[in-house]
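Run log // design_07
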């Protein structure tokens, strides 16, 4: 016993010493980590603070740019309108003042002063400062920039007529802004001539005769109209940035352009004083002196053409307040734990021997029990492996099914979501598991409730129809089959299968339409054949009667009228045979451009002066094997319909091009065949075709005209001729905007061969961001989905106003893809002009169902904006966007 006791004490003492050393080390490292944490908090605050100041300083220039756009859009400015616009624009955060300084040549100086006086400025005269700081009449110079229109938001001196260009600093700034065509800010300095007491930023925006900034310096100098000048107090901008931020005691020193003059580091532009919570003016900032000891952060950023330096100094007590008490708590808990462990080790040593005896006695019993348990565990493993293999087999089978397989509990929460379900609906399993089933469209909620109630009642549900919403917003038509799993009479879960039948229904609709047209063709062909036989009998007997008749004039008139009716019946038969594709054709190798050119001259005479006929022939158009007479008849029918749709006049555009219809197009139009075609396109600017009429336009005898104004066979003849010739016809129309017919004639590879047009392939996108502007929600979702699949980053906007908000947010946008026709005050052309004026680096692509719709009104827009005609295929869209983003020159139409 005398030997064991010291051994026990030595073990406990060793444990205590190790615990004390470990607690000290933990305290040291915890304290160092806490110091780094406090420094990271202050450094993060400095980063955030600098970013916030930079944003607020830059934001001051946006309204001045908007004022420049307002001036550019008005050839003549009315002072009251200018002041009203500026007041509304700066209502939230007004500057000190906004000025409009027009460019006045010396030769027109007197006329300008007289006009200004007539507009209310009785004493208006162009002037400048003299050496004593007084306003005097300006000396003779080639041109002046007098402050004519102004709106003052603070008590600042009136400077009407003052020519800022008389000051060398202003003159240099004007020249730089004019030649570079940029918004420029003058240094935040105190101008002694105006007796100002705090730094002022002056933002200069050059305004040219055109909303589009000229390309060359010489052209900018020639077309310069003047400058919009905004005057801002730097202190107000900075105070607005710090107004709502969390308060931590800190002293903030602001410097501007300190890198150009090292001495400026002793002369801060502004100082934020923590006790008062305001920015001190320059003279007070100098009196404030250095910030003193503490933790200091330094940040640099650029804003409005100047370098800013932000130095924040946090007093030592701020660092202490931010530090955690965790290191001390760790030290105390470590020491306490050490004492407890040392006591525990001493006591455990005493009882260890007693426990060892008990353990030895139990070991034998446990060995026998372990042998029995081992045999039981092996048997359980074999069962678990078999169950696992069965589960894996069942899961693999469910995952391989092409339909969505789901399992819901009795509360309709989704517990299983197959891979096919992820693909069909766009939701990954982790985003939808354990959540209630809510995929149904809002209008179909009652139908879904009825389906689940039917299954809960013990019935098996098969092919129950309702609509579900895809993750991207698209509505999908599904068929729901389900069965319940019960515990006794209580339902435990539902196993369901959701099959997407959206594409199948579209294909079935297209197939039904094709079958209907085919059935109509067979019916009208049979009727025309029988009717033709009857006409032959009638016309033959009329001819015999004509030969045998006497000189009775009245009988002769009856026979003549009957012959005319028979002739009209024969024409009707030819129309029916054309629709039924049984009209005899005389095909030959034809250059479609020659046929169109010949017919265009004739159509100009037939349609009259109110209809403008425009021909846009493509280059190297492929030859086609067709009956040219039928092509001419088709052109006449389409032109006549277009004339009737434009009672007050309009434009008829006839264009030709080479087109390749690929598998994607054929999948959407089952009546078409993939291959090369020469396309004949006829577009008008008329009233358009309503959707309810569009589905019937090719039916025989269907017409929207009144009785006696047409047989309704014109379009059915064209349809039959195209099908008989192996071609395809496509129609695109918008009510109130016009209609476009596209006739695809199969390419003829005869003796006269022309160069092939390279097939349009899907061009994969890059890292660029595309802003899609489309007011049709379904089309907007489709284009967004296609571009995202191509690899682009996509932003979407429902109209031009929303698109401008996205652009003004400062997010990176590489290309704007916009529809031309949109609801609202701004259409796609207006948006394109604004983008080119304000963001010239952003590419613009427009789309429309009408070739060159309204683009001929703006020559500059034609040269810089590409147009994609509707309807377009995915390959055409991807190729054009890639070409524009890569800067590929615009090729001629194929």
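design_07 sequence
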């Amino acid at each position: 016993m005398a030997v064991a006791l010291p051994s026990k004490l030595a073990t406990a003492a060793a444990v205590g010493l190790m615990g004390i050393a470990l607690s000290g080390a933990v305290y040291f490292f915890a304290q160092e980590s806490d110091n780094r944490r406090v420094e990271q908090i202050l450094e993060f605050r400095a980063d955030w603070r600098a970013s916030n100041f930079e944003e607020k300083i830059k934001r001051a220039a946006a309204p001045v740019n908007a004022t420049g756009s307002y001036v550019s859009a008005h050839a003549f400015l009315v002072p009251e309108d200018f002041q009203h616009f500026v007041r509304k624009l700066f209502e939230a955060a007004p500057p000190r003042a906004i000025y409009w300084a027009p460019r006045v040549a010396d030769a027109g100086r007197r006329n300008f002063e007289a006009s200004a006086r007539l507009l209310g400025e009785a004493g208006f005269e162009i002037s400048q400062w003299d050496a004593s700081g007084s306003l005097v009449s300006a000396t003779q110079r080639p041109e002046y920039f007098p402050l004519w229109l102004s709106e003052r938001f603070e008590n600042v001196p009136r400077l009407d007529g003052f020519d800022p260009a008389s000051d060398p600093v202003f003159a240099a700034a004007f020249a730089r802004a004019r030649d570079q065509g940029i918004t420029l800010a003058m240094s935040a300095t105190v101008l002694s001539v105006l007796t100002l007491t705090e730094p002022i930023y002056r933002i200069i925006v050059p305004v040219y005769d055109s909303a589009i900034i000229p390309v060359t310096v010489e052209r900018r100098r020639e077309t310069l109209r003047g400058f919009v000048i905004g005057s801002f107090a730097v202190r107000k901008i900075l105070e607005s940035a710090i107004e709502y931020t969390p308060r931590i005691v800190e002293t903030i020193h602001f410097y501007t352009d300190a890198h150009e003059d090292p001495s400026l580091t002793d002369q801060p532009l502004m100082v934020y004083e923590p006790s008062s919570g305001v920015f001190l003016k320059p003279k007070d900032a100098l009196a404030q002196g250095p910030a003193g000891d503490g933790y200091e952060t330094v940040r640099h950023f650029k804003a409005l053409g100047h370098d800013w330096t932000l130095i924040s100094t946090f007093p030592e007590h701020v660092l202490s307040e931010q530090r955690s008490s965790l290191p001390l708590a760790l030290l105390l808990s470590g020491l306490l734990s050490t004492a407890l462990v040392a006591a525990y080790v001493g006591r455990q040593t005493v009882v260890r021997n007693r426990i060892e005896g008990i353990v030895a006695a139990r070991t034998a019993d446990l060995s026998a029990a372990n042998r029995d348990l081992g045999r039981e565990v092996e048997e359980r493993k074999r069962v678990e492996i078999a169950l696992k293999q069965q589960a894996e087999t069942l899961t693999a089978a469910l995952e391989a099914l092409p339909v969505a397989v789901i399992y819901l509990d009795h509360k309709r929460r989704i517990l299983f979501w197959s891979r096919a379900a992820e693909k069909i609906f766009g939701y990954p399993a982790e985003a939808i598991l354990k959540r209630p089933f809510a995929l149904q469209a809002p209008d179909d909620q009652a139908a879904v409730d009825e389906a689940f109630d039917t299954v809960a009642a013990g019935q098996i549900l098969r092919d129950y129809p309702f609509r579900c919403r895809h993750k991207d917003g698209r509505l999908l038509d599904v068929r729901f089959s389900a069965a319940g799993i019960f515990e006794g009479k209580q339902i435990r879960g539902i196993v369901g299968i959701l099959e997407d039948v959206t594409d199948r229904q579209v294909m079935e609709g297209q197939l039904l339409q094709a079958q209907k047209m085919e059935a109509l063709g067979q019916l009208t062909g049979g009727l025309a054949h029988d009717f033709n036989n009857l006409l032959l009998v009638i016309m033959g007997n009329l001819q015999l009667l004509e030969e045998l008749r006497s000189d009775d004039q009245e009988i002769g008139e009856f026979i003549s009228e009957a012959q005319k009716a028979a002739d009209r019946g024969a024409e009707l038969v030819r129309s029916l045979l054309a629709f039924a594709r049984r009209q005899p054709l005389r095909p030959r190798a034809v250059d479609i451009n020659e046929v169109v050119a010949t017919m265009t001259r004739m159509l100009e005479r037939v349609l009259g002066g109110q209809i403008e006929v425009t021909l846009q022939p493509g280059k190297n158009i492929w030859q086609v094997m067709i009956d040219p007479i039928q092509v001419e008849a088709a052109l006449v029918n389409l032109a006549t319909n277009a004339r009737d749709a434009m009672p007050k006049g309009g434009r008829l555009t006839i264009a030709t091009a080479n087109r390749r219809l690929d598998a994607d197009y054929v999948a959407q139009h089952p009546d078409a065949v993939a291959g090369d075609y020469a396309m004949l396109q006829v577009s008008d600017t008329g009233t358009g075709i309503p959707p309810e009429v569009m589905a019937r336009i090719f039916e025989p005898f269907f017409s929207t005209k009144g009785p006696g104004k047409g047989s309704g066979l014109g379009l059915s003849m064209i349809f039959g001729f195209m099908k008989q010739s192996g071609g395809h016809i496509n129609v695109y129309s918008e009510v109130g905007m016009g209609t476009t017919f596209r006739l695809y004639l199969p390419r003829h590879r005869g003796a006269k061969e022309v160069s092939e047009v390279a097939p349009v392939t899907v061009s994969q996108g890059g890292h660029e961001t595309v802003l899609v502007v489309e007011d049709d929600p379904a089309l907007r979702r489709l284009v967004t989905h296609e571009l995202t699949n191509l690899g682009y980053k996509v932003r979407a906007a429902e109209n031009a106003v929303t698109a401008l908000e996205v652009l003004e947010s400062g997010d990176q946008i590489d290309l704007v893809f916009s529809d031309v026709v949109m609801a609202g005050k701004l259409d796609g052309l207006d948006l394109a002009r604004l983008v080119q004026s304000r963001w010239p680096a952003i590419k613009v692509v427009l789309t429309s169902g009408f070739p060159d719709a309204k683009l001929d009104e703006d020559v500059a827009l034609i040269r810089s904006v590409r147009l994609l005609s509707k309807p377009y295929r995915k390959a055409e869209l991807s190729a054009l966007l890639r070409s524009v983003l890569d800067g590929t020159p615009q090729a001629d139409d194929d």
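The CA atoms of residues 254 and 310 lie 5 Å apart.
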